[in-house]
Amino acid sequence: xxxxxxxxxxxxxxxxxxxxxxxxxxxxxxxxxxxxxxxxxxxxxxxxxxxxxxxxxxxxxxxxxxxxxxxxxxxxxxxxxxxxxxxxxxxxxxxxxxxxxxxxxxxxxxxxxxxxxxxxxxxxxxxxxxxxxxxxxxxxxxxxxxxxxxxxxxxxxxxxxxxxxxxxxxxxxxxxxxxxxxxxxxxxxxxxxxxxxxxxxxxxxxxxxxxxxxxxxxxxxxxxxxxxxxxxxxxxxxxxxxxxxxxxxxxxxxxxxxxxxxxxxxxxxxxxxxxxxxxxxxxxxxxxxxxxxxxxxxxxxxxxxxxxxxxxxxxxxxxxxxxxxxxxxxxxxxxxxxxxxxxxxxxxxxxxxxxxxxxxxx
Length: 362
Fold this sequence. Notes:
The chain contains four helices and 18 strands. With 362 residues, the protein is mainly β. The chain folds into two domains: 6-110, CATH 2.40.50.120; 134-357, 3-Layer(aba) Sandwich (Collagenase (Catalytic Domain)), CATH 3.40.390. Strands 9, 10, 11, 12, 13, 14, 17 and 18 form an eight-stranded mixed sheet that branches. Strands 1, 2, 3, 6, 7 and 8 form a six-stranded antiparallel sheet that branches. It has a two-stranded antiparallel sheet with strand order 4-5. Strand 1 and strand 2 form a beta hairpin. The longest helix is centred in the middle third of the chain and has 16 residues, at 154-169. The radius of gyration is 20 Å and the shape is globular. The chain starts with 5 loop residues before the first helix and ends in a 5-residue tail after the last strand.
């Protein structure tokens, strides 16, 4: 795997500290959707402190995506799971009022052996049983939030998304199949009672992107703990800090390439160290070389969604909601949301797919 030089990351960081985890508190975005863990770090040394933020006394607060609360767990692919007493070097950047690791995984260097834990190929998100997660339905509907991307006309975004979903749907050896449900005004991530499932949306407004700038897109996948089945998957694009295109522009990220990767996360695939694969975790501006499935991608989805486990239900997708008449559950509580029934009692919400920006270094 190609990594950014450590020296360059240190130059990017506003604060670099070496310290020990002395406290872990979950910050909940909702009653059943914890999304952030606040680490209290006892700082032993601060070799880089451009903002003069290292505390003279007391712990430093660092935010990591993910956490566990009331039977609900949120995980972001590639983020180290730190425990009390763990010691690490943290390369941090300021995001709003919080300190967060640069690009998440790149910004936390644990002080233990064993490497990064990567295998030789594809990996899966797993249920509490340790088994790969999968969908229980053979037919999935996805929606595009009404505002879409500020960089492109909606029709071009829809075409790029259609190609991305079709790349996975066209596999003859795995399920499910995807159908476009059209426009929705729903913009919440995670399982919401009145929200449609499987929303694609752009975060464009100032302050709307909650993650480090280096993260280009991110997928949140919700799992029923009781069954291990995926029940919802939503994709956020970082339109606030990044530009998107469909023509290979050198200063923008290709929508089809990014979306094809994120659909893999919707199917329960984690990242792979195979650089030629769609599920490799990093990409470049202007790159359009990784939206055709690699053998590693195919093997991954065949392992979790083999046709032998596919429900024997023919797919009959209805007409798509137009942009001028979107599916708005908050305004119409009686509407159908075109998704599986809500899970039983507990959900595990895994925020995955922090597709990181790999900058070209001079």
